[in-house]
Amino acid sequence: MMIRMMGTAAVVALLCSAGLHAQTASPAASVEAVAFDPDAVNRAFNRLSEDERYVIQQRLQRRGFYQGEVDGLTGPGTRDALRQQAAAALAAGLEARLDTEETARAFLDGLLPLPAEELPEGDAFFGLWDCGVGTFSYRYDGYATSPDASHIPYMSIEEFTPGNFGVTLMDGYRTGLMDVTPTTMTWSSPVSGDSFDCRRVSAPPSRPETGTAEQPQVREQIAAVPPTSPTEDTSVPTQPETESEAATAAPATTVWPFEGAWSCLSDTFRDDPMAFRFGPDSVTVPELGSTVGYADVDMIGGRETAYLVNLKDGQRAALVDLETDRVLLFAGGNLFDCARMDDE
Fold it and tell me: Side by side, which strands form the sheet with 142-144?
């Protein structure tokens, strides 16, 4: 797996950790201090992959800069959020420019590595694991298939249900870590189809310190950045009407993309696939003779390829990497690889 080149070292240092280290005691920078060109930001943002665009908007949203919908589209809200994040970097004594496609791309690249403030709480899956084919290493700064190998930084980590994680690395590679306990877990790759039972062989490393008097938290920098003026960038052309940031919110729909019948295989049900039939308000498992209604359904990460279904019996089902004919299903402590069946 190839690690994509990061942006400037200063910006990476800013955003790969929970803290900002100010080189000098500088006052808060206003957004007007950021070298900025909206067209350059648009071009740089749109050259990112879909996953990268979603991750950046999520990160800006969690830091309080972005109030729009996480949809992977660029517009006034996204541009203003990036400008405010750049102002926070300037306030920390770091260089941040958004006036050319090259400088904007370098800044965006610096936003992608997962900062320490967004790591899962507790021990989670961090540590060394004997997975049969090798000793997999999950450090706080990245993952490798050997403790001595170069570790690939995380782009995002999502906990679908307690103890079940989806991990996306900076090179775009994804893995599922299922049924994580203090001693065991199941490692799975939706790309290769491999699945390994893993045993923890070392305790998690010491968690990196976040927030000292010399190393203020990112959130403290956010609070110090003056917001964008309401009249700013009035001449900036917006994206087409399809941009959800600027559009009026559409009414909720009860037609879910995952609706239909699915034939699902897992390590437990390797020979005899299990069928799941997802309707608009309930799921049926014919083999168990059960139908359970939805308590609620949420999109994971604001995208229409991942959903968390909370059931009325207290259980949960997570559907991720949803395609027209395939989906990964996390349910009942199992990871299922599902293919859509013709409706009967």
Answer: 142-144, 135-139, 127-130, 195-200, 184-188, 174-178, 164-169, 154-161
Q: Give Cα 164 to chain centroid, integer Å.
A: 14
Give the number of other Cβ atoms within 10 Å of residue 233's Cβ.
16
Phi, psi at residue 44, to the nearest 5°? Answer: -65, -45
Closest residue by Cα to residue 340 from 260, 257, 274, 256: 260
β-pairing, 274-278 vs 142-144, is unpaired
Query: Quick one: tokens of 315?
Result: 């259980």
**Local structure of residue 253 (DSSP, 8 states):** -
pLDDT in tens, 305-316: 888 898 888 888
- Between the CA atoms of 323, 166, 271 and 256, what dihedral angle is there, to the nearest 10 degrees? -40
Q: In terms of Cα–Cα distance, which of 11, 26, 35 is closest to 92?
A: 26
pTM of the complete model: 0.61
Residue 293 pairs with which residues in a beta bridge?
282
